[in-house]
Design brief:
8-stranded mixed β-sheet; single chain; Rossmann fold; 637 residues; 5-stranded mixed β-sheet; 3 domains
Length: 637
């Protein structure tokens, strides 16, 4: 077996681990079954993958066929993916939270032949639309008692449980072993490995074609910047594997470096699972880290008195200690002693809630607010940020293990070029590569564009959209605004999110929203103001804090009234709006706001599966209320 540097396909990565890093009997996957955690070896994983491959070869699945998955994270996802990948079939993962209409569109657009389904709710969703899915041949429930669910009488599809599929496949493995190996060896790095459908914030979802080379090169170069990851690390996976970030930064990293991959039971049980699994590395999104930050501050200061003073002193001590290290200086004896005390009294208790073994966290999916990154740095927990899109496999930049620049998303990875293009003139302001890195480099902001091994093959069956995204010089246009700062990429906002007020001032909503999100009273905020004289916002309060403050029953949040108008609650929020507005330029400050009773919802079509607010949808849906808010502001003047 060649070394990992020579591996060029996704199924080759895991087999390389068994040949060169771990024994086949070593633990690869961990998941909770009933009340206990179960270990699954590399050997069992590969046997199940071979069973999947043998079953589908028997059924006539060929290289290039699209094979669907709509399932929560777990071992079955890995078995199925490894099985279909090694016979050249293409993984099409669907977010379990998508509507029936969106699922039907993806099944038909991709032309998938089979789909693995994770629970009875999803199974019922598939059964409702299956008759409209012209190429779908197999529905594969991966849960118990699927037979109890009524199947439409006119449904001409084969339904086989994943358990039966594996059993049948294992019987056929010996017969097809030679064919599996032969096909696996014919897979080219340029072959499509996966279709990952974009979340569709601006229209119909598009199938991003990512090759084996896209995935393999992406994970390899990221590991060169994260040399601290080794074969003994334990990752806890909770972000959806249907998203390219988790698939690359957890699944493919584990397949390349030989790490153990544990699966959280759910987001609600994540805190409990962290204590049980005690991960050393975890991928997360900024919102999770913001919640940990908010809960830590609330817990540390809620009682006031001595406890609050100790907490705030510890945080200030951690900040001073971190800043010394960031400056390349050695903290003095006094500061080092104070840091040890802060660690014992405060930091260790926060770290215990993560399992106590975290070497670092990897944050992606959106820019992490600077103050949140600094908070974890003060605790001594490194948060490594990265940046990329589905169309870039996904990583374009990644923080180096030994260098932290808060508010940025890292250094350009090896083998690609990242440029900043002027939004108006379309001239390229600057091009940066991994080798041109200068820790003092700064440039003006513009649209971030990229070319190199990370860029997708294109959008499936959409040549016009592909040509619009990738220009004649092979630059992929990300639609994100940013600049280089201290050599690292810094994200400002999405180009399509940019607000241009009535006076022609450009306002990027995300950094402004992040300032207001420092408030422990605010859970979400949505900035409004395009072509208007001033900014307003829709604010979603922190429900727990508001209930404690005003003694509100749960029924308060079940009211049909969308917005909260109680004067005392409005004033409570307004106190923090005024406080944090001082950190902003006058044209960036919120002049008026509405308080939405409940968070923006995926079920209501207001946010994407990756938790991005659909700005056009929200502005259209609440247009009447927004107009009323602006009218009230005029009357108040």
């Amino acid at each position: 077996m060649p070394s990992s540097d020579q591996i060029s396909t996704v199924p080759g990565l895991l087999r390389n681990v068994v040949e060169n890093i771990h024994s086949p009997e070593s633990t690869f996957l961990i998941h909770k079954k009933a009340e206990s955690w179960e270990n699954i070896s590399f050997k069992t994983t590969l046997e199940n993958a071979d069973a999947v491959a043998a079953f589908f070869l028997e059924k006539g699945i060929v290289k290039g066929d699209r094979m669907g998955l709509m399932i929560e994270n777990g071992p079955d996802y890995i078995f199925y993916d490894q099985g279909v990948q090694q016979i050249g079939a293409i993984n099409v993962s669907i977010y379990p939270t998508l509507s029936e209409h969106e699922v039907e569109y993806i099944i038909n657009d991709s032309g998938m032949r089979a789909i693995l389904v994770g629970n009875n709710f999803l199974y019922k969703k598939i059964l409702k639309i299956a008759a409209n899915c012209r190429r779908l041949e197999y529905i594969i429930p991966a849960f118990d008692d699927h037979e109890k669910i009524t199947v439409p009488a006119d449904l001409h599809l084969q339904i086989i449980s994943f358990e039966d599929l594996l059993s049948t496949g294992k019987i056929k493995t010996a017969q097809y072993q030679h064919d599996i190996r032969a096909i696996r060896e014919t897979i080219s790095p340029s072959d499509t490995s996966s279709l990952v459908y974009t979340s569709g914030t601006t229209g119909t979802p598009k199938g991003v074609m990512l090759s084996h080379n896209n995935f393999v090169e992406n994970v390899k170069v990221c590991l060169t910047q994260m040399e601290v990851i080794d074969k003994d690390d334990v990752f806890l996976s909770f972000l959806p594997l249907s998203h390219v970030f988790e698939r690359t930064a957890t699944y493919h990293v584990c397949c390349t470096a030989g790490c153990t991959m544990a699966f959280a039971q759910s987001l609600e049980l994540l805190a409990k699972n962290m204590m049980e699994v005690r991960p050393t590395v975890m991928n997360c999104v900024p919102r999770l880290l913001e919640r940990i930050h908010d809960k830590a501050y609330k817990s540390g200061t809620a009682e006031g008195g001595v406890k609050a003073r100790i907490f705030l002193w510890a945080m200030e001590t951690g900040k001073n200690y971190r800043q010394k290290l960031d400056e390349g200086k050695t903290p003095g004896i006094l500061l080092s002693t104070e840091k040890m005390i802060a660690e014992k009294l405060v930091f260790s208790k926060i770290k215990e809630k993560t399992g106590g073994r975290l070497k670092f966290l990897i944050s992606g999916g959106a820019a992490l607010p600077k103050n949140v990154g600094e908070f974890f740095g003060n605790l001594g927990i490194k948060v490594c940020e990265g940046f990329g899109l589905t169309e870039t496999s996904p990583v374009m930049t990644f923080s180096e293990a030994n260098r932290q620049v808060y508010g940025t998303v890292g250094r350009v990875i090896p083998g690609i070029e990242v440029a900043i293009q002027d939004i108006e003139t379309k001239e390229i302001i600057n091009i940066q590569t991994h080798d041109t890195f200068d820790e003092n480099f700064v440039c003006p902001e513009g649209e971030i564009i990229v070319r190199g091994h990370c860029v997708m093959q294109g959008y499936f069956n959409k040549p016009a959209e592909t040509a619009e995204a990738i220009d004649k010089d092979n630059w992929f246009h990300t639609g994100d605004i940013g600049r280089f700062y201290k050599g690292y990429l810094q994200i400002t906002d999405r180009l399509k999110n940019m607000i241009v007020n009535a006076y022609g001032k450009n306002v990027y909503p995300t950094p402004v929203e992040n300032i207001y999100l420092k408030s422990l009273k605010i859970e979400q905020i949505f900035l409004i103001g395009d072509k208007r004289e001033y900014l307003t916002a829709i604010v979603i309060p922190n429900r727990e804090s508001m209930q404690e403050k005003f003694g509100l029953p749960n029924e308060f949040f079940e009211s049909p009234e969308i917005f909260i108008t109680e004067p005392e609650i409005v004033e409570w929020i307004n106190q923090d709006i005024k406080l944090f507005s001082k950190e902003l330029a006058k044209f960036e400050r919120i002049k008026n706001f509405m308080i939405k009773r409940n968070p923006f919802s995926m079920d209501e079509g207001e946010i994407t599966p990756t938790m991005k607010i659909k700005r056009k949808v929200v502005e259209t849906k609440y247009a009447e209320s927004i107009a009323g808010m602006y009218m009230a502001s005029v009357e108040a003047d």
